Amino acid sequence: MLLIPSAHAGLLDGEQPVESRLSGLGHGQSDFGGVGLMQTPTARMQRAGSLAFSYTDVSPYRRYNVSLQPLEWLEAGFRYTEVTNRLYGEAIAGDRDYLDKGVDAKISLWEESRYLPAIAVGLRDMGGTSLFGSEYLVASKRWYDFDFTLGLGWGYLGARGDLNNPLGWASSNYNDRPGRGETGGDQGGEFSLDSLFKGQMGIFGGVEWQTPWQPLVLMAELDGNDYQSEPQSNDQEQDSPINLGARLSVTDNLTLKAGWERGNTAMLGVTFGVDLAGLSQAKLDAPPEQLVAKAPLSNQVSWPELSREIQAQSGIRVDSLSREGTALIVSGESTRFRSTAQAEGRANRVLHNRLDDYFENFHYRLRSGGLDTREDVHSRADIAKAGHDVRQQLRYTHSVYALAATEPNDSKAEGAARYSGEKVLLENTNDRWSAGFSPGLNQNIGGPDGYLYQAYLKGSAAWRTDRHGWLSGSAQLTLFDNFDQFDYISDSKLPRVRSYIGRYIEETDIGIDNLQYTRTHQFGRNWYGMAYGGILEMMYAGVGGEVLYRPLGSPLAYGVDINWVKQREFDQQFGLRDYSTTTGHASVYWDTGYKDVLAKVSLGRYLAEDIGMTFDVSRGFANGARMGAWATFTDAGDDFGEGSFDKGFYIMLPLDAFFVHSSRDNIGLAWSPLTRDGGARLNRKYSLYDMTSYRDMDEYWQGFESKVWK
Predict the structure, then answer these.
(1) Residue 11: pLDDT over 60
(2) Collapsing DSSP states into helix, strand and coil, what is residue 505?
(3) Cα gap 362→358, rounded to integer Å
(4) Among 289, 361, 375, which Cα is nearest to 332's?
(5) Burial grade of 279 (CB within 10 A; 0-12, 13-18, 19 or more)
């Protein structure tokens, strides 16, 4: 047989081509979500930062899947399965089809090399009722235009029972697998640890072929399930264990899928995938100034005009300009460029070109919410020596702690007496108003009512009363929604602190989402405080405060917040209901230093007065995108209701990835299986940890590695 090498034949060491589509050879989504063939997974992973939404229909199952790739070696997924020939129950959801939720994870154990395959281990539907619960060990090897997979499955993936479990040699407990529903709680939501890798195993595997027509991939797989022990006594006839299918890449992001499974059933599917880490847009930002050879001889300068030019060129909104010795100090906030190194590099040119040679250093005192967070120092001589190379201008940059803490009685002149020898040259008092519009989406998925949504347009405005105080407000206009279908209320015995969401959305088209006054305070070099009061979110009004300890450049930060709140009336105007409570948390933030992974643990009291902990882990990317997940466990016990604990995942999208001008703003989207009363947190508008993001020095140094700025 004559083999004609493909364009990727040289990739025998297992590397995937950089230009490979999200749905190309070895990158398709399985029927259950996650990289795989049809019913079975492979050992392949997407590129870190990938996100995929997929839908498949293989009667009697319709599956809606979300798959995330936060790390090169970790794939996580959430699934919502509609069983079209079973009902939830008339008392719960009338004649609506049964819905099951599942959470998956896959971990890469070994990367593919020239002679060895990629190896991964995974858990499918690992919590709750675990109707489709499986564990597997799988290997994949690429050879020219073919990608081969072979695996061992337990549970649903291995229901055919080809092999006895070798783990039974170590303990007889591994010989039998607990029945479905015996490991999760009555309400679901608990992890099924007692069933992991137990029972007989099935062999599964398959092959993909990249056809000469690049958009088309053909698949054949051996299914490890014989469908004779389906959940809910829903056994299916299987005429053949061989499944056949095809994937067609319509675009780089959209894929259609079709197949013939169980030897008698058609499969149809569609996948939309996006590389969050690769989101970018060509920018039409004005180029930075050219650096002049010599500083101006005249010392006549208009400080207001210089302030405006700094903001126009660098996006640094100047609060004040001051002088200390031969240093010019620019105090303000970077509002446009995601990289503060980029912003300061542009501002350096403005200052060098307009100031006489009396000034030998340029300082940038970075602020947010009126708080001094960091001070960056640039040598003017080094800037001139580097010439037009902005990165070389910054090579000698160093950062120091922000100067002494702001005193509560600082005068309008920026408390100049705080700094020995510092003279205020300009204080801006004009930029007090800000306003804008943004779209938003509320979602509720996986419950008996199906997928519920509210699309809205939010208008926001803020007026700064002084450096440390501002009044903020926002209102939401509902564009369209289907929350009139929100009927099912979990049998939780907790106060209904969130499950009234249907009434909040349905009883008004325009609601006040936020109207609060906020003040910040700096207690010391590393200590920050904030107090606020008013309408805090859609459902609650009240007062609260937060304190944060965050040393510059430290991977750890510690915060405490406490809030007294009262439930709002459903029309989202100014009326209040009877329910009130005190809620708050002590939180630890850990920047792990690995792949921009941030871990947060919060311990405290939730809106329904249950006490517990929330774990939140997320991974950020250089373009500002972030993906993460959370889980909340409380002492509500059986009172919690369906789900047993709260969980969900979220993504943050950088707005400048969609527009031609740079922006530091993000838009967030979150998904949670149910709207629960247990583990419900107050949606505070501001967070001191986010406000003090300049304390993270990694972001600053990563700015030097950016490939997109001049």
Answers:
(1) no
(2) helix
(3) 11
(4) 375
(5) middle
CB within 8 A of 411, min separation 6: which ones? none
Tokens 């838009």 correspond to 667
Distance CA 226, CA 600 (A): 43
The model's pTM: 0.88
Instruction: Report, in this order, helix, strand and coil percent for the chain, each rounded to 5.
Output: 15, 45, 40
Amino acid at 454: Q
d(CA 398, CA 373): 15
Specify whether the CB–CB gap between 201 and 152 falls below 8 A: yes
Q: Tell the burial category of 433 from Cβ atoms under 10 Å away from its Cβ (0-12, 13-18, 19+).
A: exposed
Query: Can you tell me the distance from the alpha carbon of 157 to that of 169, in angstroms, rounded to the nearest whole number?
Result: 21
- Residue 130, Ramachandran bin (φ over 0: left; ψ between -120 and 50: alpha; else beta): left
Instruction: For the chain, state the CA radius of gyration.
Output: 29
Task: Tell me the C-alpha distance between 328 and 303, whole Å.
Answer: 11
Token duo for residue 135: 């564990």
Length of the chain: 710
Q: How many angstroms separate the Cα of 313 from the Cα of each of 284, 317, 320?
A: 13, 10, 17
Distance set, CA 558 to CA 396, 401, 552, 686 (Å):
31, 18, 13, 16
How far apart are the C-alpha atoms of 530 and 514, rounded to whole Å?
Answer: 17
The secondary structure of 522-533 as a DSSP string is: E-SSSEEEEEEE
Mode of pairing for the β-strands spanning 97-110 and 361-368: unpaired
Select from 19, 664, 28 the least CA-distant residue to 278.
Answer: 19
- Model confidence over 676-704: pLDDT tens digits? 788 999 999 999 999 999 998 877 777 66
Neighbours of 127 (CB within 10 A): 25
| Secondary structure of 240-273 in HEC code, one letter for each residue | CCEEEEEEEECCCCEEEEEEEECCCEEEEEEEEE
Angle, CA of 256, 262 and 268, to the nearest 5°: 15
- The 10s digit of each residue's pLDDT in 551-609 is 998 999 999 999 999 999 999 999 999 999 999 999 999 999 999 999 999 999 999 99
